[in-house]
Amino acid sequence: MRAGPGDAGARIDRFLAGAVDGLSRSRIKALIEAGRLAAGGATIAEASYRVKPGQEYELSVPAAAPAAPRGQAIELAVVYEDADLIVVDKPAGMVVHPAPGHPDSTLVNALIAHCGASLSGIGGVQRPGIVHRLDKDTSGLIVAAKNDAAHAALAAQFAARTLKRTYRAVVWGVPSPAVGEIVGNIGRSPGNRKKMAVLSRGGRPATTRYRLLAALGGAVSLIEGQLVSGRTHQLRVHLSHRGHPLVGDPLYGGGRRRRGAKLAEPLRRALAGFPRQALHAQVIEFRHPRSGERLRLESDLPSDMKDLIASLEAAAATGAG
User: Fold this and answer.
1) Domains of the chain and CATH, by start
2) Which listed residue (7, 135, 137, 249) is catalytic?
3) Is there a catalytic annotation at residue 7?
4) pTM for this predicted structure
């Protein structure tokens, strides 16, 4: 659309709101800030930009996103499935449910295609069937409900802390004592809103139990962790707070280069290339929502963590530490 003499000096978002049908000023502002407005081949990214008479503006409006996630034929590693629920071994790199930046190719999209209409409306439009979550780069077991009764029963077990989840993790250092419990309220970090943190005031109560399985050369360890509560990033936050962040954790790892700087070359090489937080949800235990039977399902460590542990064991065997 072209600006006339009477439009000179007006804010660009106000001008476009009067010139474009069907778009609110707030929506236009969001489009501008997303880089979807151009003039003369140059992007205008400020909604406060002042209109120049005779200048032609091009606003690109993306197609409307579907109100609910759509099914996508994505291969799933199904560990258990019946008419009420499904347990999937999620690979690292897969997002659980659609969110800004990840509109599709998620576990939810795969579940909708796999389970069909049975997931519709269970647990919310954007998270059908999902009872708990795993971070994108955490691999392992996750359970989803196929009907409202199963979802309610599993959610109740989660709230009552009788749905048990056990993890394997490779962490920096060697935790002491070898068996212990980390207790600390978790909430949004006051210094970085993208992170969670252990807070002295506020937050929500959280407890993590851990057990040392193997010290790998003294610099890193293989541990077992169990979530008593279920807070965002809980195991990652608690272990980092204790001084033993996960190997490869980009958010709570405390600087891979700094931590690896003093290591012998074999250990440094083994650790340097690991591309994600070394965390795997290995065991999940709960009562079946219909039969009441206690189910215990287990997942083998993924190949990348097996290779990492083998490399660390080999380096430790050479005396590198």
Assistant:
1) 5-59 (3.10.290.10), 68-160 (3.30.2350.10), 161-321 (3.30.2350.10)
2) 135
3) no
4) 0.77
